[in-house]
TrEMBL record:
CC annotations in GO: cytosol
Protein name as annotated: Lrp/AsnC family transcriptional regulator
Database matches in SMART domains: HTH_ASNC
Coiled-coil residue spans: none
UniProt KW Transcription regulation keyword: yes
GO molecular function, one term: sequence-specific DNA binding
PANTHER family named among the record's database cross-references: LEUCINE-RESPONSIVE REGULATORY PROTEIN, TRANSCRIPTIONAL REGULATOR AZLB
The species this protein was found in: Spirosoma telluris
Alphabetically ordered keywords of this record: DNA-binding, Transcription, Transcription regulation
Length: 156
């Protein structure tokens, strides 16, 4: 059974859009931009935080802080019944920035950020020893042109 999704209205989406532009935006600034009271901005944002719709974090530019090897890894699992435990183990690795189960040729899609190519090789070798990992295919990202949060305007 699927979880109930939080119902969001235009004000909620507007608050989320403000925070995507500036995660440090104050309640007063949000209220001014949306033409609502500071209390409304505070109450709405606190609800969005409590319901897990948004979390406020500092976003780091990986290259500027020393991650020089950013890669995509396709992982093939055999037998397929091991997909969940393999995904759980891989998700616990600090290098993992994205992990998803997929349809198609491979079973898991992983994006990783490593300090160097040697670090990336060590990571791939390490996950290759996990029970159920049958094969991996690694694609190194030479240059990332866009790294963004979803555009909430697409939901309108």
């Amino acid at each position: 059974m699927e979880k109930n999704h939080t119902l969001l209205d235009d004000t909620d989406f507007a608050i989320l859009s403000c925070l995507q532009k500036d995660g440090r935006m104050s309640f007063t600034e949000i209220a001014d931009q949306l033409n609502v009271s500071v209390g409304t901005a505070r109450t709405r944002l606190n609800r969005l935080l409590e319901e897990g719709v948004i979390s406020i974090v500092g976003r780091v530019d990986p290259e500027k802080v020393g991650f020089r090897a950013y890669a995509h890894i396709a992982i093939y699992i055999r037998p397929a019944t091991l997909k969940e435990p393999v995904a759980q183990e891989i998700s616990s690795k600090p290098e993992v920035s994205f992990l998803a189960s997929t349809s198609g040729d491979y079973d898991l899609e992983v994006d990783v950020m490593c300090q160097s190519n040697n670090h990336l090789v060590e990571f791939v070798n390490e996950i290759s020893t996990i029970e159920g990992v049958y094969q991996t295919k690694t694609t190194l990202y030479f240059k990332v042109y866009k790294y963004a949060q979803p555009d909430l305007n697409l939901l309108k």
